[in-house]
Amino acid sequence: MNIFKTNIIKLNAFFLPMIFLFSSVLFTTCKEEQHEPTLPFSYNVSVLLNTKILDFQLRKIDYYLDVAVIKGSKTMDSIGEYSDLPDSVFKFKDYYFNNKLVHFQINKIEYLDTIPEKTFYTALLIDQSANGNSYELRDPYNYRYENINAFLKNLSGQGHVILSACARNGELANNVLTIYGDKFISHWNKEIATNLLALTHQTGGTSSINDGLYGMVDFMAKNAPDSNRSVTVVLINKDDGKSIHSIEQIKSLAVDNHIRINFIFLSYNINFIDFRSFTGLAEASGGFCELGGIWELSSSFFMMNKLLKRDLFFYRIHTTLTIESPQYFNPNYMDVLKTVYDTNSKYDNYLYFVLEKP
Q1: Which pLDDT score is estimated for 26?
Q2: Other beta carbons less than 10 A from residue 120's beta carbon
C-alpha cells in the first residue's frame, strides 16, 4: 500500500500547537491496478453498506461499519454471503504522524441480518468518460457488459431498472446525460441488452458525473415510487470540473427525496476518482459502495438484486479511532478498511470510508 500520511494543516504558532488531521489517506492508490484479469473470476467482494458515528470527539471517534462480504464464484447458485469469517480478516492500519500514534481498536464484530425491502427501483448510471482513466485500460475485454447484463438477466421481477450513461463531449447520443427509454423494466429484454452492448463502443470525452448524477436523482424523484429507490453508479473518473451541480446539491436532492446513491468504483486511484466526496455521498444517502476492477467485482453483480433490496447478512465492525495530542481529527476524516482472505494480497479487498462529524 502506497499511503502517505498527509492532508495536514499546521496552525500558526500564535495559536495552540495542534495538527488538524484530515485523513490518513491522501495517496495515489491503496492497491495496484490490474490491467488484465487473471482467470478464473472468482474474487470475494466486500461492500460497505453503512457507516455510523457513535461519538465524535477531538481525539477519539467511536463508530461502526456495516460490511457485507460476498463469496467469489462464477455461477449464481454458488454465490452468497460469508457467514463465518474470523474477526482477524478485517484490518485497519495504525500509523504515526510527527511521532504521534493514530490507532484503530476493533472492539467487537457482530454478524447481523437486514430487514429486506420487497422490491427496488434503481437507475443504472454508467460513466462513459475517458479522461485520465479509461475502459480500454481498466476493462479491455468489456466485462462490464457481461456483469451488468448478468444482473439484468437475474432481475426476474425482483426490482425495476432504467439504464443511463454520462460523459461530456463523448460518443453518447445526448451530451452530459443519456437516458435509455422512459420506463423501468422488471425483466431482461433485448432492447436494454442492445443499448448496454452499444455503450462498450461509446466511450470518450470527459466525466460529467456531477451533472449526470444530479439529473438521474432528479429523474428518480419525479418518476420512481417513493419506496427504496436509488441511483447505482458505475464510476471510472472524477468530474471534469465543468458540471454546474455540486456534491452538496446532489446530496440535498437525494436526501430530501429519500433516494440512495450507490457507487461501484472501478479504480483504486484517487487521481481518477474523488473517493472522499462520493463515499460521503453514499453514506449520507444510505447507499452502498464497492471498489475494484470490473472482473474483481463480478460476484457482486450476481448479488445485485439482494444488495438493492438490502436482503443480505453483514458484519458490523465496532471500532474506536484515537490520535495522540496535540493532533486532532478533521470533521470529515477518510480512511481504508482492508479485508484479507489468505496470504495472496491480490485477493485483498479495500473499502474507503468517511467519518463525518454529526
Answers
A1: 46
A2: 24
